[in-house]
């Protein structure tokens, strides 16, 4: 009940803020310049509120620390409160938009992009097995995608001296000496 009595709801520029900086500073001053920790209880920090209460605000150092950091603490408490409200109401899912980079859905990588990324990473050489592992696809799907790129002239089919067939991407190549001509 005490905790709820301390909570003050303000409306600022259309936003409902659960925690107010003036109220937090008032509680900080009333509680012996932070020594009793009432402002921490108000901000929902019960653990440190109890610590401040039993230690006298860590011997006054915690109260002094809070004097300078209280605006940030109130801001963090309001962000946490708004996040909790959004999650409870389901508004977080509805408010996601493409202009907010943190909420973009990752597009699955196309086989071509997987192949080209691997070619760059492996100095221009790619095998169907590598593509299958990296692209989360079957070896047959990887081979078809590689063959398609070879038919388009983006890649060449080469044979290593060990006999392994690889797909060669000249634009990412560093050395051409390990191949045999067929």
UniProtKB/TrEMBL annotation:
Compartments (UniProt record): Membrane
Membrane-spanning residues: 21-43, 49-68
Gene3D superfamilies the UniProt entry points to: Winged helix-like DNA-binding domain superfamily/Winged helix DNA-binding domain (1.10.10.10)
TM2 domain mapped to chain residues: 20-68
Coiled-coil stretches: none
Membrane association type: Multi-pass membrane protein
GO CC entries: membrane
Pfam families assigned: TM2 (PF05154)
InterPro entries xrefs: TM2, WH-like_DNA-bd_sf
Keywords: Membrane, Transmembrane, Transmembrane helix
Family matches, as PANTHER family: DNAJ HOMOLOG SUBFAMILY C MEMBER 22
The name this protein goes by in its record: TM2 domain-containing protein
């Amino acid at each position: 009940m005490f905790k709820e009595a301390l909570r003050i709801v303000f409306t600022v520029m259309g936003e409902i803020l659960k925690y107010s900086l003036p109220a937090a500073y008032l509680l900080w001053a009333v509680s012996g310049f932070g020594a009793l920790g009432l402002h921490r209880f108000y901000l929902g920090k019960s653990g440190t509120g109890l610590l401040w209460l039993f230690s006298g605000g860590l011997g006054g150092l915690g109260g002094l620390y809070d004097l300078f950091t209280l605006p940030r603490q109130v801001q963090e408490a309001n962000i946490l409160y708004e996040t909790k409200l959004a999650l409870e109401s389901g508004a977080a899912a509805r408010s996601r938009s493409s202009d907010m980079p943190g909420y973009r859905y990752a597009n699955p990588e196309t086989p071509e992009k997987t192949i080209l990324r691997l070619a760059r990473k492996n100095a221009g050489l790619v095998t169907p097995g590598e593509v299958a592992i990296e692209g989360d696809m079957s070896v047959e799907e990887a081979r078809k995608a590689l063959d398609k790129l070879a038919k388009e002239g983006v890649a060449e089919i080469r044979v290593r001296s060990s006999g392994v067939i690889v797909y060669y991407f000249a634009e990412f190549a560093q050395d051409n000496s390990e191949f045999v001509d067929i």
